[in-house]
Amino acid sequence: MLEHFFSPKTVAVVGASREEGKVGHDLLKNLVTYGYKGKLYPVNPHADNILGIKTYPSLREINDTIDLAVIVIPAQYVERAVDECIEKGIDSIIVISAGFKESGIDGALRERELLRKVKQHGIRMLGPNCLGLIDTQSCLNVSFAADMPPQGNIAFFSQSGALCTSILDWAMGECIGFSKFISIGNKTDIDEVDIIQALDNDAHTKVILGYLEGVKSGTAFMNAAQKTTQNKPIIIVKSGGTTAGAKAASSHTGTLAGSENAFDAACNQSGILRVKTIEELFDYAIGFSSQHLPKGPRIALITNAGGPGIIAADAVERSKLKMAALSKNTVDSLRSFLPATSNVYNPVDVLGDAKADRYRFVIEKVLKDPHVDVILVILTPQTMTEIEKTAEVIGEISNQTDKTIVTSFMGGIRIEKGIKTMCQRKVPNYPFPERAVSAIEAMYKYTLWQKKSTPSIKTFDVQKEITISIFDDARRTGRSSLSEEEARQVISAYGFKIPKSILTTSEAEAVRVAEAIGYPVVMKISSPNILHKSDFGGVIIGIKNAVDVRRCFSDITQKARRLMPEAEIKGILVQQMITGGKEVILGMSRDPQFGPLLMFGLGGIYVEVLKDVAFRIAPIDSHEAEEMVRKIRAFPLLQGVRGEVPVDIDAIVNNLLRLSQLATDCPEIMEMDINPLVVFPEGKGAMAIDARLTIS
Amino acid sequence: MLEHFFSPKTVAVVGASREEGKVGHDLLKNLVTYGYKGKLYPVNPHADNILGIKTYPSLREINDTIDLAVIVIPAQYVERAVDECIEKGIDSIIVISAGFKESGIDGALRERELLRKVKQHGIRMLGPNCLGLIDTQSCLNVSFAADMPPQGNIAFFSQSGALCTSILDWAMGECIGFSKFISIGNKTDIDEVDIIQALDNDAHTKVILGYLEGVKSGTAFMNAAQKTTQNKPIIIVKSGGTTAGAKAASSHTGTLAGSENAFDAACNQSGILRVKTIEELFDYAIGFSSQHLPKGPRIALITNAGGPGIIAADAVERSKLKMAALSKNTVDSLRSFLPATSNVYNPVDVLGDAKADRYRFVIEKVLKDPHVDVILVILTPQTMTEIEKTAEVIGEISNQTDKTIVTSFMGGIRIEKGIKTMCQRKVPNYPFPERAVSAIEAMYKYTLWQKKSTPSIKTFDVQKEITISIFDDARRTGRSSLSEEEARQVISAYGFKIPKSILTTSEAEAVRVAEAIGYPVVMKISSPNILHKSDFGGVIIGIKNAVDVRRCFSDITQKARRLMPEAEIKGILVQQMITGGKEVILGMSRDPQFGPLLMFGLGGIYVEVLKDVAFRIAPIDSHEAEEMVRKIRAFPLLQGVRGEVPVDIDAIVNNLLRLSQLATDCPEIMEMDINPLVVFPEGKGAMAIDARLTIS
């Protein structure tokens, strides 16, 4: 995929320039300098020869097939150049030039026209407004970056070109190798999804890193990532997260949702490791790049200094990793070998005077312990410390094991050479043990993800036709929010249990219905225009006899007429009153990128005040539904505290799956709350008391 | 303070050695090499001359006053050396030697004896088991560290010697200068409190950094820190945090408290910035060390790359800082100067081709904006970027302003020189903008702390004598938990309002009392042996008439006799039933280091399941009490949601202050819960329904 971008046999540089410092010059020079093996065709009507290479006045004049054309001319001429590419039958184009969407309306129009053209002719285009790309394997540096990174197995793509230059510069000083470096610019045609798919298929890439400010298609992004993360990790830093701002929303779910929660849920469900900072991005990357994945969470710390050992142990306890409990065998042999004042338990303290051989003995012993999955070796440069020799020992041992070994040599000048040595032997070093622990934790999480079974989406037998006719009806009458009865019918059609409930239009009818349902009953105003019924006294519960039914009927209707004179009142609902059980809320809000975002939380203040909710993108399977339920902080309340019986978690899961199906089946649903869903004790099911639903 | 440690006129090295690699040699060599200006007296019975310096067989033979003696001989001979110091009238000793508390019981005994001796003779001792200390101002390197750090205004003290060596090595490669470097070892005599006090008085120290694994006296630590942080920041990384482990506790407060919460509260109340990692420690340090404190939270970002600008803006939104809204003036002049595609709002994007002069113009303009307190300049090394020139510009501007300027030059090799340049001009650089934002946030928090008024502890008129007699009574009968009546009496003596409540011992008496109080009433078992009364049905509420009072009386007593046959039953409490209001919990648990740790939370599940609580160390003032109340996540529930009236926050504050006074007055109280305290609407006060209390 995208072969012509990464290993073209011929490259034309449209806008190649003789003038140093110009992008069209620097880019051509990079191609030459870093050893591109194919044929180069600079295009410039005012030059015969640039950097010693024959230069053509136009693409037309080149008597060869062009695999890749790179366009580095001012924005207003790009379209004409693309026309020439089409004429020449070129199927892969990089547009470096800026002056498109990012520069205002004229640019945006230019960009749209560009997209139309390339789409029409089946051309793939990278950019515009990008730095270009680098493929270290084919020695292809088709960018105006100032450097060529060393070869390695990390691929990096970025929506910010400037970030590419920073990271390239930084990588040059570190011991980090790259397979590919791709600036995706305005991602008009080729976007993160194309890149992820290409990198999935790239044998030279072991880890995929990305910097994103947004995604073009949420679903495609998730699908690509889900597939790729079965093979290799994807680590993403996404910015622009906190500025989302409030959006008008009529449901609780809508209020709490938002693009950040959607992106988080998408990462969670597609195995992407989302990090907060660039530092973490590379901390994780070097771990994945060079080490085996941990087979389990049990980590042993080996240190020549107590303090850093405690710091690391603290970090382990804050993480999902576990301090390994060394087996008796290991402890015994450590005790017989180490000085008396050493600590032979985890963290193993080899003491400040430990030389390389002591480190070797201990690492080898601990590595053999079946209770250990990962080793973190900590070293501080003390007077007796053999830094480089120890580094060599660790490198050698790491080479012979399939367990995970990382180090934290802490210091500066003295430890530099040691770190280089280990880097060459594929042992990643972290300047502080906390960062090492965090990287190992990420690797462990990824192990768990890979072990996870692929979601198997359950489909219920539902009466979709009912929902369709209700939506049609609402649309016909120009309403985007459904009435309560309509909402109840919709969820009932999808298998939610709801209390008996009948719309009445007179006191007498209300009494008849109440007596049929059985006291006590609940009475509620029914009006498509009134969403928050209880706020103005439109809901009365616990009505116990005919007299009260009559009184409540008139009370509610009068109050509604007085307070909301413009509201259309359809009558009064008389409902079976549900007692007992715990209230939860299930909801959905349609995210512009990722589609139906499901929400789960405990009812009332837990959602409104504590914002204790979990999100997933529909469709979900039962594992994911259960994860949602278990993820909220208040989950112990559902399990029962102080001797209460646990609620019917299976019923919640079942209802979440039905909601997932409803949200997936009906793209017209924009927001909905099922609030409360009353959940009864284990085995006794759940009942949806109230629902709100808005459609597009 | 500790003058003889930091600027001694004469230093004796007991255990000076001719043998390279030995601590007694390296330490003496450091004194010589790094230019100590005073007189050196090596002591070694087997040498006349070490490193060209006349050597003495014993301290006795030195015909001079010794300001500071450094002991570097095996542990078993240290005591004798100290005796010689006493004889010679030396008042300041550093014991480098290991082999004390850290090595087992014998060592601990040796250490205790050492302490006794130095205390008895008014000698101050640093160590044992330490690396020594460094004072760059007096060119004193009385340590066996391998380096001498550059001069600067950062002081670092550490409970881990190995961490000192790591940090020294690291600092040598960075541009970080130190005033003092102190390894406090086993801190047998001189501890963190002495060091903080000494550094407070040290004119060369602007920032105090510390690594701690624990504190010797919580109160002394807080007092010293409170005083010092008025003058200069203290930044602490404390490890050993998460391993605290469960301790047996009979109260909710006791269960939730723990040394980490106590240490956090102590830092919070004494202005200490506690950080989680060594990286943060130094990120903060370089900010404080070189820049002005921000006068406010408004930060402007200036960047030559969009992506990193967004990353930084995200970090700002997650922090307590605010994105500055640039004034119209600033925006206008930026617009007229910058290229059309620049962003002239915050973050200001000067574009990838910005040279030093463009940076200069923008920084100067933004700096003048009265809406800006802090500037973060971000630079990525692009082709046109004038890295060093821009660095010089920033350094020059920073020199002329009293606003805060920090940078994030992102990259590696290319930006190295620029960073050095800025460092020399006291502009701290952070490799990633998130770390810059976090450091500025810390500086801003410190500014707020310095502005805070000193706590003024209010004292209520209370009946302390009542509590004393109750405690005496409990002790006399060998009880550590008070009965409910006793606990009620104690808090009532401290001004808590409690419901009317009378102990009854017969059904008839119970009825009489209930009728006097007025129905409905609550009936509760009264037994010093039953703490969780409601768990077994020992509490019945809402009793409405005499018949029910009689029935409940016998129900409760029978149940208690059956289920807890060994419990002493004093009778049944008949209580006024309180309705309405919101339940909160106030509690106290005595921390072994910091004393009375107060807790506040919402009642029930908020405390037990969600652990949504706030801690402070008593005594507290009304500001701190209010902070506690506002700090919990569920605080909006107290303010009232959905049109509810707010509860009486002042009453909670008042009760917290009373609890603070009780906890401070009565050191015998180990744990207590006031649970629930029912808080009524604003202006209507609060009532303590139940209390539990255990004493030592």
Shape summary of chain A: flat
**Which parts of chain A are unreliable, with pLDDT below 50 for 5 consecutive residues or more?**
243-248
CATH architecture of the largest domain in chain A: 3-Layer(aba) Sandwich
For this structure, the CATH topology of the largest domain in chain A is Rossmann fold
Overall average residue pLDDT of chain A: 92
State the separation between the terminal residues of chain A, measured CA to CA. 38 Å
**What's the total count of β strands of chain A?**
29
Radius of gyration of chain A: 32 Å
Q: Could you say how many structural domains of chain A there are in total?
A: 4
Spatial order of strands in the largest sheet of chain A = 9-8-11-10-12-13-14
CATH superfamily of the largest domain in chain A: NAD(P)-binding Rossmann-like Domain
- Summing up helix and strand content along with how strands pair, one would put the structural category of chain A as alpha/beta
Oligomer state of the chains in this structure: homodimer
Beta percentage of chain A is 15-25%
Key structural traits:
homodimer, 696 residues, alpha/beta, Rossmann fold, Dna Ligase, domain 1, 29 strands, 39% helix, 21% strand, flat
Task: Detail the topology: elements first, then pairings.
The structure is a homodimer of 696-residue chains.
Chain A: H1 3-6, E1 10-14, H2 23-33, E2 39-43, E3 49-50, E4 53-54, E5 68-71, H3 75-88, E6 92-95, H4 105-120, E7 124-126, E8 132-135, E9 140-143, E10 151-158, H5 161-173, E11 178-183, H6 192-200, E12 207-212, H7 218-228, E13 234-238, H8 252-256, H9 259-270, E14 273-275, H10 278-290, E15 298-303, H11 306-318, E16 322-323, H12 328-337, E17 348-349, H13 356-368, E18 374-379, H14 387-399, E19 404-409, H15 416-424, H16 433-451, H17 464-476, H18 484-493, E20 501-504, H19 507-517, E21 521-526, E22 539-543, H20 546-563, E23 571-576, E24 582-591, E25 595-602, H21 605-608, E26 613-617, H22 622-631, H23 635-639, H24 649-665, E27 669-679, E28 686-688, E29 691-695
Parallel strand pairs in A: 1-2, 1-5, 5-6, 6-7, 10-11, 10-12, 12-13, 13-14, 15-16, 15-17, 15-18, 18-19
Antiparallel strand pairs in A: 3-4, 8-9, 8-11, 20-23, 21-22, 21-23, 24-25, 24-27, 25-26, 27-28, 27-29
